[in-house]
Specification:
mainly alpha, 13 helices
């Protein structure tokens, strides 16, 4: 579909710019004063989660197309919606924004590394009939992900009054475009998406349960405070479905099930997150 091939990269640029508008260079300094939880969160988000995705995809009894879709969605960073969710559940907003920004800034290295170098080693890119070029993918991601975040941070730092006045509108429109991108990807792979949803429903539940169990154990084992724990859980669990779709369309094309997998996960994760939040809130109330 022309939308995904031509327009979606511009949408991702806009979404990443809106993320940058949340940040100032001074915000990073605040979190870096006590960087322990930031480092834990980033390692969980950019290292452990992709490993879980790779291992799960390798052993899951599903087709190679769906395995690639799982790898794709678990190696992308979190998105702007994770910052709003963190605010709703009374998490650490500064930590959330910093984690999202840094993981997105370095995504031009982490995503190509996983897709073009690590996954092929264990045979999880056999379904892909194209040459996976690390430098090409890295450059594309740098342009549509890293550059707009830096521009947003510079705009907010140098022109704070202007940034504050336009930020609410840009943030709302960015979330709307994020949702539209996922829905268009779902529609473009509609038949494959329906098949994938039927075949992957239980698999997705198991995957999301594994991620939630892992990250909850992590924050409790390391005795991280409640607000930062909520933030790390949210940032690790909520993935940038729009980025997964756009990266997937630029690498793999449309009509093969990869995008449908990313779109289904992108929509399904919010339902799973809501269920986790309600259960966690009830448990904490009882305790």
């Amino acid at each position: 579909m022309e939308f995904l091939n031509k327009i979606a990269p511009l949408i991702l640029f806009y979404i990443m710019f809106s993320l940058g508008l949340h940040c100032k260079f001074s915000d990073f300094k605040k979190v870096l004063v006590n960087p322990k939880n930031l480092i834990i969160g980033l390692l969980s988000q950019t290292v452990v989660l992709p490993i879980i995705g790779l291992v799960f995809a390798y052993f899951a009894p599903i087709s190679l197309n769906y395995k690639v879709g799982i790898i794709l969605i678990t190696c992308v960073p979190s998105t702007v919606t994770s910052n709003y969710l963190t605010k709703i559940i009374n998490g650490n907003i500064s930590l959330s924004i910093t984690m999202t920004a840094i993981s997105s800034l370095i995504s031009f290295i982490t995503i190509p590394l996983i897709i073009t170098k690590i996954a092929p080693i264990i045979g999880l890119m056999n379904a892909v009939k194209i040459d996976l070029n690390f430098l090409k993918l890295s450059f594309v991601l740098f342009v549509i992900s890293t550059v707009p975040i830096v521009l947003g941070i510079l705009t907010n730092t140098k022109f704070n009054n202007f940034s504050q006045s336009v930020s609410p509108l840009i943030n709302k429109s960015a979330i709307l475009l994020f949702i539209i991108t996922i829905l268009v990807a779902w529609y473009s792979d509609f038949e494959m998406s329906l098949i994938a949803y039927k075949e992957m429903f239980l698999v997705l539940i198991v995957l999301m349960l594994l991620v939630l169990i892992y990250v909850n154990i992590l924050v409790k084992a390391l005795k991280i405070n409640v607000r930062d724990s909520k933030t790390i859980i949210t940032e690790t669990f909520i993935q940038n479905g729009a980025m997964g779709i756009i990266v997937g369309s630029s690498i793999f094309g449309i009509g093969n099930g990869y995008l449908g997998m990313a779109a289904i996960y992108g929509l399904f994760q919010y339902k799973a997150f809501l269920i986790w939040y309600l259960i966690d809130k009830r448990i904490n109330r009882v305790v």
